[in-house]
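In this section we walk through a basic example: taking a raw amino acid sequence and producing a predicted 3D structure, encoded as C-alpha coordinates. The instruction is simple. Fold the sequence below.
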Amino acid sequence: MNAPPEFVRHLGGCHCGRVRFEVLAPAHLEVGDCNCSMCAKTGYLHLMVRKEHFRLLSGEDALTNYQFNTGTAKHFFCSHCGIKSFYVPRSHPDGFSVNARCLDEGTVEGMTIRKIDGRNWEEHYPTGRGEYS
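The resulting C-alpha coordinate sequence is shown next.
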Protein backbone atom coordinates (compact mmCIF):
# COMPACT_ATOMS: atom_id res chain seq x y z
CA MET A 1 0.00 0.00 0.00
CA ASN A 2 1.29 3.44 -0.90
CA ALA A 3 0.54 6.38 1.36
CA PRO A 4 1.91 9.82 2.17
CA PRO A 5 5.09 9.70 4.29
CA GLU A 6 3.31 11.09 7.38
CA PHE A 7 1.06 8.00 7.48
CA VAL A 8 1.78 5.00 9.69
CA ARG A 9 0.60 1.41 9.53
CA HIS A 10 -2.10 0.70 12.12
CA LEU A 11 -3.28 -2.83 12.83
CA GLY A 12 -6.66 -3.74 14.24
CA GLY A 13 -9.49 -6.21 14.36
CA CYS A 14 -12.49 -7.62 16.10
CA HIS A 15 -12.75 -8.81 19.73
CA CYS A 16 -12.12 -12.53 19.10
CA GLY A 17 -9.23 -11.87 16.68
CA ARG A 18 -10.62 -13.70 13.67
CA VAL A 19 -10.96 -10.46 11.68
CA ARG A 20 -7.66 -8.57 11.30
CA PHE A 21 -6.84 -5.61 9.09
CA GLU A 22 -4.24 -2.94 8.48
CA VAL A 23 -4.88 0.69 7.64
CA LEU A 24 -2.60 3.53 6.63
CA ALA A 25 -3.41 6.81 8.38
CA PRO A 26 -1.65 9.55 10.37
CA ALA A 27 -0.45 8.77 13.90
CA HIS A 28 -2.80 11.48 15.20
CA LEU A 29 -6.26 10.53 13.95
CA GLU A 30 -9.21 12.71 12.98
CA VAL A 31 -12.31 10.64 13.74
CA GLY A 32 -16.05 11.21 13.65
CA ASP A 33 -18.53 10.53 16.44
CA CYS A 34 -21.88 9.98 14.71
CA ASN A 35 -25.29 10.22 16.37
CA CYS A 36 -27.19 8.01 13.88
CA SER A 37 -29.23 5.08 15.18
CA MET A 38 -26.46 2.54 14.44
CA CYS A 39 -23.39 4.44 15.65
CA ALA A 40 -25.00 5.88 18.77
CA LYS A 41 -25.88 2.39 19.99
CA THR A 42 -22.43 0.93 19.30
CA GLY A 43 -20.08 3.83 20.16
CA TYR A 44 -18.43 3.65 16.74
CA LEU A 45 -15.66 6.21 16.04
CA HIS A 46 -15.21 6.70 12.28
CA LEU A 47 -11.75 6.83 10.73
CA MET A 48 -12.48 7.38 7.04
CA VAL A 49 -9.82 5.93 4.74
CA ARG A 50 -9.46 5.48 1.02
CA LYS A 51 -9.91 1.96 -0.31
CA GLU A 52 -6.22 1.70 -1.19
CA HIS A 53 -5.25 2.51 2.43
CA PHE A 54 -7.13 -0.48 3.87
CA ARG A 55 -6.30 -4.18 3.67
CA LEU A 56 -8.12 -7.10 5.23
CA LEU A 57 -5.46 -9.48 6.57
CA SER A 58 -7.64 -12.32 7.81
CA GLY A 59 -11.19 -13.29 8.66
CA GLU A 60 -13.04 -12.67 5.41
CA ASP A 61 -14.82 -16.00 5.99
CA ALA A 62 -15.94 -14.79 9.46
CA LEU A 63 -17.60 -11.59 8.19
CA THR A 64 -21.33 -11.16 7.83
CA ASN A 65 -22.95 -8.15 6.15
CA TYR A 66 -25.93 -6.08 7.31
CA GLN A 67 -27.57 -3.50 5.05
CA PHE A 68 -30.62 -1.32 5.64
CA ASN A 69 -32.35 1.83 4.34
CA THR A 70 -30.76 2.61 0.93
CA GLY A 71 -28.56 -0.51 1.02
CA THR A 72 -25.51 1.55 0.05
CA ALA A 73 -23.61 1.05 3.32
CA LYS A 74 -22.19 -2.43 3.88
CA HIS A 75 -21.88 -3.09 7.62
CA PHE A 76 -19.45 -5.99 8.14
CA PHE A 77 -19.58 -7.79 11.49
CA CYS A 78 -17.56 -10.69 12.82
CA SER A 79 -20.02 -13.58 12.90
CA HIS A 80 -18.31 -14.97 16.01
CA CYS A 81 -17.97 -12.00 18.39
CA GLY A 82 -20.34 -9.49 16.72
CA ILE A 83 -17.88 -6.59 16.47
CA LYS A 84 -18.05 -4.21 13.51
CA SER A 85 -14.43 -3.11 13.14
CA PHE A 86 -14.90 -1.59 9.66
CA TYR A 87 -17.53 -1.08 6.99
CA VAL A 88 -18.23 0.61 3.65
CA PRO A 89 -20.16 3.77 4.56
CA ARG A 90 -22.92 5.43 2.59
CA SER A 91 -20.97 8.71 2.75
CA HIS A 92 -17.77 7.12 1.34
CA PRO A 93 -18.83 4.13 -0.82
CA ASP A 94 -15.40 4.09 -2.48
CA GLY A 95 -13.55 3.67 0.84
CA PHE A 96 -13.87 2.34 4.36
CA SER A 97 -14.77 3.58 7.79
CA VAL A 98 -12.60 1.89 10.40
CA ASN A 99 -13.73 1.89 14.02
CA ALA A 100 -10.84 3.70 15.72
CA ARG A 101 -11.74 1.81 18.90
CA CYS A 102 -10.76 -1.42 17.13
CA LEU A 103 -7.18 -0.33 16.42
CA ASP A 104 -4.40 -2.05 18.34
CA GLU A 105 -2.47 -0.03 20.90
CA GLY A 106 0.93 1.36 20.06
CA THR A 107 0.58 3.40 16.85
CA VAL A 108 -2.15 5.95 17.63
CA GLU A 109 -0.62 9.06 19.21
CA GLY A 110 -3.91 10.85 19.72
CA MET A 111 -7.37 11.54 18.33
CA THR A 112 -9.34 14.61 17.44
CA ILE A 113 -13.05 13.77 17.63
CA ARG A 114 -15.58 15.74 15.60
CA LYS A 115 -19.33 15.36 15.85
CA ILE A 116 -21.24 13.99 12.84
CA ASP A 117 -24.97 14.61 12.60
CA GLY A 118 -25.94 11.24 11.16
CA ARG A 119 -29.54 11.63 12.30
CA ASN A 120 -29.78 14.38 9.68
CA TRP A 121 -27.54 12.67 7.13
CA GLU A 122 -28.88 14.42 4.05
CA GLU A 123 -28.18 17.86 5.58
CA HIS A 124 -24.74 16.79 6.85
CA TYR A 125 -23.72 15.40 3.43
CA PRO A 126 -25.74 17.52 0.94
CA THR A 127 -23.75 16.12 -1.99
CA GLY A 128 -24.32 12.57 -0.77
CA ARG A 129 -20.59 12.03 -0.25
CA GLY A 130 -18.13 12.94 2.46
CA GLU A 131 -14.53 14.05 2.38
CA TYR A 132 -11.56 11.98 3.50
CA SER A 133 -9.34 13.34 6.22
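Looking at the output, two observations stand out. The longest strand covers residues 7-13. The chain has a mean pLDDT of 89. In the next section we compare this with other chains.
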